[in-house]
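Milestone 3.1: sequence recovery, worked example.
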């Protein structure tokens, strides 16, 4: 009898293979809308061109700098790419804090601080005499116009520096470095962290053409045929597209599979109606979905003798990391329930395990449906009967939760694709350096073919022409 009652709560989270195929088909339509010249403005899945035109071929080499700004700290790294050993080595790195008042000050102050810290790093590692290329991971919403030109759309994550929104952040960085007056950098490549994930895996495995992050948020990128990217002129070659698939469902296309708990999580989030798909999958929200299900079950006297503890009744107190800990075994569940001040019995602990498994599985299956859309698209683009490809993956949810369900579901939804998963090492650091290395070798190749070709290439990639 209890099983039947518990099933009533969990059934809406259990998606059939047919439903997952339908989700995959809806995302396929949204990818096309995002790639369209006239439809991309209103598309929930933005499909942003990254101007990364190739994956590593294993011949890249040299020393690079990487700058990773995505929160209250930023990192500076010195990365060496060794062709003979086929390795991307982190030589040195340094973490620099950004004071709270600087996050709300002027853009000039912020970039001067970054330039000073970068200079100090170069000084302390005897690199100031070299002019090294730099990969810049800037994890804020930007419109990228070229590999080295990226306009900040809006600040997020507690930043609100004046004079930066609507400006090219590469230019602001270069101007700040010029103001220091005591060192120079080479070419700059702007890098999205998902693209960095793909590229950091791509040196090790040259069939890696997809990057995927399932962590606090979720996103993916993949190599698309340029002729299908309607905003960019040009027919030949490929370009990495940053899908921004977290926005899938923002137009209501997933409403029929949302549960009452998803609706509640969205309503109480800081951005209601935005990033619906991300809220069903990623680490920022999974713990809260589990908490809301447990609260409802307790109110209905199915759990904990009907008594909700203060912790369970508080938003955000059931952390996503509890899910993976509970998936590791019943003993962990008992420990966590005690910490949450709950009066539990063995049946309660077993039900909590089942709830965690169900919600974590749904996340894996939805992710698999989205990933299947991408691999099937690459296969169809290339008119192949069978595609063998690698996905570079990162993010705490992927690393800490069982991944067998995701992998099995992708195989079911993309039967003509043979997919290998490779966990990325430091996409925003090593991956950023790799993007710079590939961009540089492409530029050298173009230059060697004559200046007229550079002009033609530049014209054909300017989306605002």
């Amino acid at each position: 009898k209890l099983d039947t009652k518990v099933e009533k709560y969990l059934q809406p989270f259990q998606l059939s293979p047919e439903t997952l195929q339908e989700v995959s088909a809806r995302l396929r339509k949204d990818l096309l809308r995002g790639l369209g010249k006239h439809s991309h403005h209103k598309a929930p899945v933005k499909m942003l061109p990254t101007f990364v035109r190739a994956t590593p071929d294993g011949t890249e080499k040299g020393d690079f700098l990487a700058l990773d700004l995505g929160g209250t700290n930023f990192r500076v790294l010195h990365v060496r790419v060794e062709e003979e050993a086929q390795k991307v080595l982190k030589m040195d790195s340094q973490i620099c804090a950004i004071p709270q008042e600087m996050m709300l000050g002027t853009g000039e102050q912020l970039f001067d601080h970054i330039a000073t810290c970068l200079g100090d790093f170069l000084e302390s590692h005897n690199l100031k005499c070299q002019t090294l290329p730099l990969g810049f991971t800037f994890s804020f919403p930007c419109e990228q116009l070229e590999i080295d030109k990226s306009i900040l759309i809006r600040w997020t994550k507690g930043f609100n520096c004046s004079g930066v929104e609507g400006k090219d952040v590469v230019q602001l960085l270069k101007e700040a470095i010029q103001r220091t007056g005591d060192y120079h950098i080479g070419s700059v490549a702007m890098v999205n962290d998902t693209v960095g994930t793909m590229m950091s895996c791509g040196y090790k495995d040259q069939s890696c053409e997809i990057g995927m992050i399932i962590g606090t948020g979720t996103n993916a990128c993949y190599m698309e045929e340029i002729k299908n990217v309607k905003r960019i002129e040009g027919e030949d070659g490929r370009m990495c597209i940053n899908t921004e698939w977290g926005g899938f469902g923002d137009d209501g296309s997933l409403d029929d599979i949302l549960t009452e708990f998803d609706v509640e999580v969205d309503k109480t989030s800081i951005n209601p109606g935005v990033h619906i798909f991300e809220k069903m999958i990623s680490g920022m929200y999974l713990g809260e979905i589990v908490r809301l299900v447990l609260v409802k079950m307790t109110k209905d006297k199915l759990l904990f003798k009907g008594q909700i503890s203060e912790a369970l009744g508080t938003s955000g107190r059931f952390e996503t990391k509890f899910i993976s800990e509970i998936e590791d075994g019943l003993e962990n569940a008992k420990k966590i329930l005690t910490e949450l001040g709950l009066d539990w019995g063995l049946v309660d602990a077993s039900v909590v395990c089942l709830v965690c498994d169900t919600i974590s599985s749904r996340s894996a299956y939805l992710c698999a449906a989205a990933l299947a859309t991408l691999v099937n698209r690459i296969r169809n683009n290339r008119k192949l009967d069978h595609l063998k490809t690698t996905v570079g993956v990162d993010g705490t949810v992927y690393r800490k939760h069982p991944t067998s369900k995701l992998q099995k579901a992708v195989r079911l939804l993309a039967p003509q694709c043979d997919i290998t998963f490779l966990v990325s090492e430091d996409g925003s650091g090593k991956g950023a350096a790799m993007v710079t290395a590939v961009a540089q070798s492409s530029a050298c190749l173009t230059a060697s073919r004559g200046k007229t070709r550079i002009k033609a290439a530049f014209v054909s990639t300017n989306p605002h022409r």
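The chain is about 45% helix and 20% strand. The mean pLDDT is 91.
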